[in-house]
Amino acid sequence: MSKKTLNTANLAALGAERLAELLIEVSTGSADMKRRLRLELSHNLGPAELARDVRKRLVTIRRAKSYVGWRKRTALIKDLRTQSAMIIDKIAPDAPADAFDLLWEFLALAPSVMDRVDDSKGDVGAVFADALAEISQIAARAPLDPIALAERTWEAVQGNTDGAFDGIITRMAPSLGDRGLAHLKELIQIFEAAPLDATEDHPALQFLRELRGGNANYAAQRKKRFVQMHLREVALAQGDTETYISLFCPSDLARPTVAVEVAALWSAAGNHDAALDVLEGARPKGKEAGRQAWDAAYIHALIASGREDEAQAHRWRCFTETLDPEMLRAHLKQLPDFDDLEVEEAAKAHAATFKDLNATIAFFLAWPDLRGLAAMIEARAETLNGTHVAPLSDAADALRARYPLAAALCWRAMIEAALWESAKSRYAQAVDHLMDCAAADIEIEDYGAFESHDAFVRRLRKRYAHKAGFWTRVT
């Protein structure tokens, strides 16, 4: 390796004195580099000295008011990462209590920093998220008073406008312990019992909300949701499943995603009947969001309750309603030999006539059963929706080698849809599909009831002769 290559060994060979001279030289005019060098000098004097310098820098960042444009945005992110790294990597190993205080101060900077910068890309927020991920480990090594920590945590929760302290109760739970969590719960309950801030529940604001068709009690309801959310977090940290669940209102429990979460807690506590009750109260309709997780939780609870037959029946019902291939596989695994073959054929027959053609295509591709997919496409060719480009493209790509006629029918549907809708952005793709049809024509021995490739092209030229943007691309 060349001795001129920039690496640690070659630079170390220059000697400490020469390196120091070079650092002074290259840092001239660079405030960032000078700041970094001063931090390293402070660290050399001990963690207490470094902590003082980091704290000074955090104060400066907090007091800044000017907007940070895109030119200075990278420098701000670098500065924030430097301060975070000094706290986590340099101070925490030897002075965890100081590091904890500093990291908390660092996270508290988020609102003022976010007010001064456009974080549409999320990379400024990512700096605070990375710092938050480290705080519980540092707290575990710091001698923290649980009561004071509870009060600090509650203050952070109330001011968490930018998400820098998201989940802080859970993160602090080990350090809070029973005393701290109990005190935190008291603080939340005191806040709950206190009257609303007059500025939030002013009669004029209530009147305006009513005029707009909103809820006049918006402030009260928002406070209630805020309190319940954090009391639930405390209850979960305390391992108090019943209290945690009791803090959900009926409308929350009617949501499948919430019901799945609550059912998992009941199941973990061994109360499978309660898990089933809460799930049945939030049964999703059709392909409602959270359906897959709900079905999995429901089947798990049925099996845990010894209701295997009902679990098996639910698997089949799920498949018939959604064509979920994993549900069918799980169902078939529970069947005796030979019975599974008969049921599989019945399942494929059901899938072939399923009303959602995209779901049908997805099922046959995932199973996989290309023969069944080809037969289904030929049988339902008139109903193929060429605007659904993704599923038809996937089907055609899978079928082109062994079932060229079915592939061509998919391409034809997409071509006609593009021409019918004058979708010029899809013309290039439609021309490619027409070439695919021509290539498939060589492999197709019998078009059966379908028109030949030449007849298809003639029909297109007659019906869409005016689509010059398409035909000029056809060679």
From TrEMBL:
<dbReference type="InterPro" id="IPR049245">
    <property type="entry name" value="DUF6880"/>
</dbReference>
<dbReference type="Pfam" id="PF21810">
    <property type="entry name" value="DUF6880"/>
</dbReference>
<protein>
    <submittedName>
        <fullName>DUF6880 family protein</fullName>
    </submittedName>
</protein>
